[in-house]
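If your schedule permits, I should be very grateful for your opinion on a structural question. What I wish to show you is a protein chain and, alongside it, a tokenised description of its three-dimensional fold. Would you kindly read the sequence against the tokens and tell me how you understand this chain to fold? Here, with my thanks, is the record as I have it:

===
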Amino acid sequence: MTLGRGEEPVYEWEGFLCRRHPHRLNPDDYRVPGQPVLTTICAKDKRPVLTRDAIRGELTAALSVATGITGCELIAWCLMPDHIHVLLRVEQQGGDIIRFLHSYKTWTGRRMRTAGFARGWERSFWDRHARSREDTANMVSYVLQNPVRAGLCQKWEQWPHSEYCWGMRERRTAGRGGT
């Protein structure tokens, strides 16, 4: 590949354009049932607009919708002013974390533009796959403690834009005979 001066290579991986290098794992690694993956999606140009009243509710509601249609399960999430951390896993065969990210970013990006925010999300995203239970526990802590580290609250429980979700569905269905 020959590039002109000042040009950088662009690679396409599962519909996401990635500058510089193809830093994604094999697409099948995002479809492994039970594999926790921590993702971080940043607002375009790191603009601190995500916790504003005009869009915050749409961004958080879309998490459960996108996980439902893509066969994923939320473990924990935290919406910060300029990014969102989502820890999730593929719940069943056929689930796909890349499809979750694409669905979430597409739908919420449109909603953000409708709400008057001209720019939505950065083109790509960050991700990290858990390698053990301890790794997953550390990821949960990282997600929930993010507003504390940023000085936005004293305890993670005080931050209204985060949730620990893992096992919530099982607890809800247990009271109905497991159905």
